[in-house]
Each structure stands twice: as structure tokens, then as C-alpha cells.
Amino acid sequence: MKELFARMADALRNGEDLVLCSIIASSGSSPRGAGAKMALFADGSTYGTVGGGAVEYESIKLAKKAMAEKSAFTAGFNLSKNQTADIGMICGGQVTVYFQFFSGGDASAIRLFDRIVSLFGMQKNSWLVTRIGNGGANRTGLYVEGQGLLNMDETDESAVSGLLKSRSVLTGGDPSYYVEPVTTAGVVYVFGGGHVSQQLVPVLARVGFSAAVFEDRPEFCTKELFPDAVRLIHGDFMNIFEQIAVTDRDYAVIVTRGHQADYDVLRQMLMTDAAYIGMIGSRHKIAATYDRLPDEAARKEARERVHAPIGLPIGGETPAEIAISIAGELIAQRAGLYNK
């Protein structure tokens, strides 16, 4: 998303018109859910995706219409093959796409998009807010926690105050509001700088997480290995709190090089209110690690709270595959699909 808004800001700075296509509602087995975005630029090129296939093909045609008319509107797509108004897809479901024209040189939009880009890596909660009136969108703004709603009116701020969720929200009425999270305040602390971490950190960056790497070996804690990390922490696994303070918005991924370091990190993470704790290893190794905890209360807490073995059970074996499974589990946690 960061790259999409950066490209849009640059295009507007260069005086080029563009249309932003956003999925604002979906149901059934649609290719992409709410929040998927694609920009159509003045030269006909696109960046991003609203799911590919027929939806994207039709969306590009409608985006060109919005470009020519300098307008904003929504369009619904029926993906069910059994319906007469389908678009030739068999996945089923419904998708609503919102098309919004931005004029080249629009100073307000440039400031908005630049502000969105600047938020990535800053550990702030923020949401993109779109007010959709009868026949089109009136305005798009940005809600930043602690700062309020930018680029919109006070009446809009009161209307969206209860809509700031971890997932996209679309209200009814006229006007309606579409609110989606852009950045989150939490940090994913990745303990260990080995092969799995080197595959995991760039994946996390691509899906909107801010990842920090904590490693006790300086040669495995470098910008060359982790160009996507928001922070590199060279420290002692036995004394983590000398370097970091873990909050209830943060995630802990324990993938160190050895059982002793895993234990040291786990013991300390159980003292925190971290939103997520996950630890790599076989079930036998995990059980042995739990057995080393100081008392039965700590062992019970670990069994109930820690995601171990870490990651979704997709059968991954290589570092890259394991990284995908871990990222998937963090996405599920962020979406509120776990109670741990």
C-alpha cells in the first residue's frame, strides 16, 4: 500500500490525473476482499490489483470512464455463474468497487498521500476515511490516533469515531462512510536473525507489519540482511528489557538459533502483555522448553498463550515456506481470528 500511495502522490505532483479503484465491500468467494486497491494513471497504466480476471478488466474500463468524466461512483459485480448478470467468473460472491477521480496537481490529495506514506514504519494507528455521498464521493481523509481526522470536517470525525476497527467498515445511509486501517501501532519483534527471519521480515513489510530484529550476534543484525526492518537491536537475549519495552500492541516471534535463547526470550515475553507470542520448534522441543519454566502457573500460561509450533499448519519446511506460515498466523491474529 505504501508504494501505491507514493506513486499516486508522484503522479499528482507531475500534474497527471488518476483514478483510485478500491474494493469497499465483498461477500462469498471473491478473489480479493475489502481494502484491495488499484490505481489507473493518465497514460493507461495501472498499479495494484482488485483481484485480476474479469473484475479487474471491468474495473479498468469503469476507471477510464471515471477519468473521462472526472467523477466518482461505485459499481457492483456479481461473481455467481448462476446469475444472469454475472461477469463470467465461477468463484461466486459479490464485490463492490469504488472509483474516485483525482485531478493532477490537487494539493490536498498530494498532502494526504504523502502523509499516508510517511506513516509507514512510525508505529501509529491510522485509517483511511472516505465519505460517499449520493452519486459519488465527497472527500477522502486520514484518521491518525492521537491527532484526529485530517482533511475532512468535524461532522465526519464524529460520524467515524466508532468505526475505527482492525478491519474495513462500510456504513449505510447518505452519506455513507468507508473506513479501513492503513497502519498499526504494534511492532513485530523478531528474536533471531537467522534464515527464517531473513525470509520473514520482508514478507511482514509487504503485508503492513513493522518488524524489528533482535539478535545477539552483530553479523546477523545488519541493514544488509534486513533492509525492511524498522529497527535492528543488537542485545543480550537474557536481558531483553534493557533494549526494548513490549506493549499490548506488539508481537513476539521467537526464532533464535538455539533452545537456550528461545527459553530466555520466552520466559521474558511471558512477563509482558504482548498481543501475540509465537515460538518455533518441534512439539517435543516446545514441551521441553515449557518444562523449564519456573512454576506450574508459568507453564500453564505458556500452553494457553503461546502459538507453538509457530505458524499456520501448511506443511512448510524451507525457511521461505516457514516464513509464509508465520506471516499468515500474524495476519490472522491482527484480523482478530484468535482468542489467544
List keywords for this structure.
5-stranded antiparallel beta sheet, Rossmann fold, 340 residues, alpha/beta, 2 domains
Q: Please compute the radius of gyration using only Cα atoms.
A: 22 Å
Please state the structural category. Answer: alpha/beta
H/E topology pattern: HEEEHEEHEEEHEEEHEEEHEHHH
In which order are the strands of the major sheet placed?
A: 3-2-1-5-4
Number of helices: 9
What fraction of residues sit in β-strands? 25-35%
Q: Give the assembly state of these chains.
A: single chain
Number of domains: 2
Instruction: Estimate the mean pLDDT confidence.
Output: 90
Approximate shape = elongated
Largest sheet: 5 strands, antiparallel
Summarize the amount of helix as a percent range.
25-40%
Uncertain runs with pLDDT below 50, 5 residues or more? 83-90
Termini gap: 28 Å
DSSP, total strands:
15
Summarize the structure.
The protein is an alpha/beta fold and 340 residues long. It has helices spanning 2-13, 53-69, 107-119, 154-160, 195-206, 259-269, 283-291, 296-305, 319-334, and strands at 18-27, 37-41, 46-48, 72-78, 94-102, 126-133, 136-144, 148-150, 169-170, 176-183, 187-191, 210-215, 231-234, 251-254, 276-279.
How is this fold's topology laid out?
Layout: H1 2-13, E1 18-27, E2 37-41, E3 46-48, H2 53-69, E4 72-78, E5 94-102, H3 107-119, E6 126-133, E7 136-144, E8 148-150, H4 154-160, E9 169-170, E10 176-183, E11 187-191, H5 195-206, E12 210-215, E13 231-234, E14 251-254, H6 259-269, E15 276-279, H7 283-291, H8 296-305, H9 319-334
Parallel strand pairs: 11-12, 11-14, 12-13, 14-15
Antiparallel strand pairs: 1-2, 1-5, 2-3, 4-5, 6-7, 6-10, 7-8, 9-10
